[in-house]
Amino acid sequence: MGQWGTICDDGWDDNDASEVCRQLGYGDFGIGWQSVQFDEGSGKSWLDDDSYSGSGQQIENSGSGGWEEHNCDQTDYAGVSCDTVRLVEGTFSHEGRVEIYHDGEWGTICSDKWDDNHASVICRQLGYSNIGTAIGTEMFREGSGPIWLDDISCSGLESNIYHCDGLEWENYNCGHNEDAGVSCGIVRLVGGTLPREGRFEIYHDGKWGTICDDYWDDKDASVACRHLGYGDNGIALHRAKFGAGSGPIWLDNVDCSGSEKHIDYCRSNLWGQENCEHNEDAGVSCNSVRLVGGKNWNEGRVEVYHNGEWGTICNYGWDDNDTSVICRQLGYEGSGIATSSAIYGEGTVKIWLDKVDCTGNEKNIDECGNTGWGNHNCEPREDVGVLCKRRQQSLV
C-alpha cells in the first residue's frame, strides 16, 4: 500500500501494545494508550477495533475489522509505550518499588548508591516530571523476583535507566530487603516567567491537567510547593494568572490543611468532577521574595512574604552577599548589586526584616541572620533593592 497510517484506539489495550513492542524488538511488555496521548497522526487510519489474542500473530493479522474500515478520526488513534520499568506496591500510581523487565521476567534494583538522581531518571522514563525521590523498602515491601541490577550510577539527566553507568545484569551483593523504590513528582508549573511559578498541573490517568481555583488559597499553594520540592511557602494565584490550560481539569474545591506532603493527600472533589473552566485554572508562586518597582524584570525593591503578608527589608548592613541570596532565590545567576534608600520607591507594606546578615551561600533570605520578623527601627525610605545579573537557565 506504500503509506504509513495509524490504528484507531477502539478496543486497544496492553495486549495489543505488547505485540507491537514485540514486533519492534523492545521486549514483551507494552502499555496501550488512547485518545491522542502523543501527537495527532496525519496519515490514513488503517485499522480499528483491534483485539490481540496473545497467540503470537502479527498485529495486522489480529482481530480488526479490516484495512481502512474504521469509525474514528486522527484524535482517536492508539499509542504505545514499550517501557520496561514499573512501580509496584505504592499507594498511588506515581510511587512504588522499582521493577525492571529483563530476559522475560520482572525483577528489582538494589538500593546501593540509589539516590534522587536515579529516582528522577525512572520518573522521567515513566512519563512523570523530572522530580523523583529515592525511597527504600520501608514503604513498598520487598520484591520476590530476580535482582537484576546493583551499583548503577545515574547523573539524573538520562532519558531512561539504560543510559546510566554500571548496568551489569544479575551482578549484585544484596537481598530484597534493599530493593529500590521511588516517588515521582506528578505535579509541575507551566507558563511562569521564573522556574518557581506557573499554572499548577497534575498528572493523572495518563494525562496532565489543571486544578480549578475554587477555594484555592496559600495553604493549598504551600502544599503544592512542598510537593515540587520548593519548600513550605506558597502563594495562591487565581483566574488563570499564567494562562489557561488545555487538558482535563482534574481537581476542584481543593482543601489542604497546609501540612500535607502531596497535593493529592488533600481533600477535594473526585478526579474529573468539577464545575469550572480553564479561565479558573489555579496558579502557584513558590517564591517568598519578589522585586517591585524596577524598569526591568531583574531589578526592584525587595519584598518578602511572611505570615500571609508582603513586606520590605531595611537597608542597615545590606550588601552584595545579601543581594546574591535574593537573586539566587529568584532563579537568577546568584550575584547582583545591592541598592538602598528606596531607589525603587518606598514600600507601602510592612517592614519585615532589619540588619540582614548573609554569608552569600544561603538558599533563602530567611536563612540569614536578622533581628526577627517585624523587629526594626527604620522607615520605608530605607527599603532595600537589588539589581540581579542575567537570568539562570532552568534544567527542567
UniProtKB/TrEMBL annotation:
Pfam family, one: SRCR
Compartmental location: Membrane
Protein name per Swiss-Prot or TrEMBL: SRCR domain-containing protein
PROSITE patterns, A to Z: SRCR_1, SRCR_2
Positions of disulphide bridges: C8-C72, C21-C82, C110-C174, C123-C184, C154-C164, C212-C276, C225-C286, C256-C266, C314-C378, C327-C388, C358-C368
GO cellular component, as recorded: membrane
InterPro entries, sorted: SRCR, SRCR-like_dom_sf
Mode of membrane association: Single-pass membrane protein
UniProt keyword annotation of Lipid biosynthesis present: no
Residue numbers spanned by region Disordered: 42-67
Segments forming domain SRCR: 1-83, 85-185, 187-287, 289-389
